[in-house]
Amino acid sequence: MPTFTSVQEIFDNMCKAFKAEKAQNDTATIQFDLSGENGGKYWVKVVNGTCSTGNGLAPDTADMTLLASAEDWLKVTNGELNAMTAFMQGKIKVQGNMGLAMKLQSWFPM
Fold this sequence. Notes:
Layout: H1 7-17, E1 27-35, E2 40-47, E3 50-55, E4 64-69, H2 70-77, H3 83-88, E5 92-96, H4 99-107
Parallel strand pairs: 1-4
Antiparallel strand pairs: 1-2, 2-3, 4-5
């Protein structure tokens, strides 16, 4: 993925970087709850190799919710902060299906 300057830019471009071949048999809705300046609620939905994103609450019940500051998520997405390190430091929290956090990393380059 290219370097992003805002969280909105990440979600506007997420499906362009989506690795459909890694998600052929997967179905998941992931809610992102990003706090702080430029934060907000966003979602990603993966259904059998397809990807869609949006702002606000997910259209379906989320299988996983990722909580982080907008600043930290921007760093993770831009490769400036390792996602696993951020999780271990408590900068990223996951609610719901923890296995989807690992799949998220295989579906999207981070």
